[in-house]
Amino acid sequence: MRKKKLLTGVAVALPAAFLPAALLPTVLPPADAAPGRPTLAGLVTLKDVEPHLKAFEEIADYNGGHRATGGAGYDVSVKYVVGRLRKAGLRPEIQKFRYPYWRERSGPVLARTKPSRKSYKRGEDFATYAFSGSGDVTAPVIAVDIPAKGEDGTSGCDRRDFKGFKKGSIALMQRGTCTFETKAARARAAGAAAAVIYNLPGEDGPVNGTVVKPSRIPVVGPTHELGAALAKAAKKGGLALRVKTDAVHGKRSASNVIADTERGRGDNVVLLGAHLDSVEDGPGINDNATGAAALLAIAGKIGKLGKGDLRNRVRFAWWGAEEEGLRGSTHYVESLDRRDRDAIALNLNFDMLGSRNGTRGVYDGDHSTRAGIRAPAGSGAIEKMFRDYYKGRKLPTTESSLNGRSDYGPFAEHGIPVGGMDTGADGVKTAAEAKAFGGRAGKVYDPCYHARCDRVKNVHLRFLDTNVDGIAHVTQHLARTTVAVNGGARVQPLRDPSYRPLWQGPYRLR
Ligand SMILES: [Zn+2]
Prior knowledge:
- The protein is α/β, with parallel strands linked by helices.
- It is 30% helix and 22% strand.
- Helix 4 (46-61) runs antiparallel to helix 5 (72-87), helix 4 (46-61) crosses helix 8 (285-301) and helix 11 crosses helix 14.
């Protein structure tokens, strides 16, 4: 029946990514709307989404060119969302929170001073870790438990790696296994004046990482090539480096906006989330006014659904400080008491829905790509709902592996099933993707990612339109029943101890 033999055969040939959901028979969910009654996908049109994009762009244009948390553009965006929700008859709540922020005040320096002088380029050869301390250190370099060529290793993960470490030296380590936070803290505890943690073999560019908590010493991340060369020189002896960083850190205030439907079970909540903030470099219309606008459009129409369609309460959330490391969503999940957390049936997340050269990426809930994190049970069912919907419309989808890089992270960490979509950021479109989705192979999905040009005209509106349809369709399905995801049960699984996030928003953790 299940094409077992064929599957095994095919399984070897095809990458796992496409297999499970694609080969399973399409299961049409029970009619999402009683005959003759509206469907959410039918009710929500591009006309309900586009005006919000324009509004967020105008807000950014008149508030310093961005909507980053901590700035006026974000605060006005919050007011805009609250105003729209009240107009739609919902009662939004503003949840305030404080979060740690970090900024570089001036450019960092990494240079070899012995045996000969050489300066390295920021962004190309190295980058500063978020929450690095400040300082200007010139000192001998000690390589710490550097793994054999090509291995990940556990450099700097263990206190014993620093046995005999000379205080005041610079600790040179390779990324791998434990978090950057652990490596930097161990180095400091051993008396290092600065820490240099270089990238893994096979990884491009410098490390774009975070040490999470403000460090007392400078911490920078070179490329693998540079780091490996420095390790070789350090082992030979006589290598000295200058590491200079200048950064500020502190606490900032921000807010999330949360709004529930009046109707539906309050102990089996379907939570849709999208971050509302942008980076400081641009207005953030694709990233992520598209997600914020999609939720506003759906929230504006969901009240039109019939009684039988809204059996589960639907909660809409606009998160703050995602670009600072998922701060708003993390605060929300961690400030819930056990009962309220148990009442959340699942989280759907939408981050970047209109990449100009994008793909329709459905979150890989069944982990068929074997990449990223393994999401809690039930996440695969959500993935299948999206894929079946688009299969029914003869529109392509692809897999978006869950790496913890957006606001579903804290939910997955607490064992709550997750799902969602994105259309691609700084990755490069493949030939196969260009064939399926159109656009240009070899070019990035969003040419204006985290840039000033991330404006309304950067958004692929027709693409956004079909993506919002899928979101509306799956939301209506889940508002009616979550049995496929959590058995409709009232009890949620506990925190997943094996969950090890890889990213905290835009920064890598390990
Ligand atoms: Zn984003």
